[in-house]
Amino acid sequence: MFKTLNGTTSLLGECPVWCERTERLFWTDIPGWELRALDPTSGEVQRWSLPESLGSFALTADEDILLMGLASCLGYYRLSTGRFSKIAATPGVPGTRINDGRCDRIGNFVFSTMDAAEQVQNIGKFHRLNAATLEAETLGLPAVAIPNSICFSLDGSTMYYADSLQGCIYCCDYPSLQHQRVFTTVDGQGAPDGSCIDAQGFLWNAEWGGSRVVRYAPDGTVDRVIDSPCVQTTCPVLAGPGYATLYCTSARIGLDKPTDSDGTFMKAEAIVAVGLPEERFSGRPN
Q: Predicted confidence band at 213 (pLDDT cuts at 50, 70, 90)?
């Protein structure tokens, strides 16, 4: 169902984001300290070298500026010049770095931190960069080891999130963070990694180590499974004209015998769902 795209191999590809204005698919190679952008029509890939690893990022009102969550700080990055303007230091305990992140439905950036040394300690937390004040606050959710799956229901009233080590995706009321509960438990060998929401309110999740991407109904039941040629799928996105093509990043890091497919950007060979425009960070760029 998936085909791999040439020239897109990353050590650890994550955080795919479709910009409908420039018609490019952005993603990060976290250990490669790179931002990348794919033109799906030409197959051309642009690369930006960064001073630190990039865990996650968001579009802004200015198509030349991204909000970036680098390892040690958050800030604005201008694509045309490579200039980075720091907004805030990474919150949380020392020795953590920014990992997964996505804007909520009103344009705040909700993101996570985890152990930078990846020693699997429960010192990670979920945070939010307030778009109005540009101040970071820590959310009242339990500490985690490998935080992932941040996304929001269509009306913004539910937040989804995961600790990949626990094998399940959680959700809570948002922004109150009340009624924290299990949304679904992964059935299989994989661990929940990145997620996105489609136009019907279903959640798509990539399974690290599971060689598949799973679509869950709003009640948490499995609706559809798409097998992947990549063992470590990392995050799906619905992109392209009409947001009608499913793509997914993957990773080759840590594999004893990676194949040519591992670490590539994948594209579904048939339309499986329709997505939504990515929410943009509503803070005012410098």
A: very high
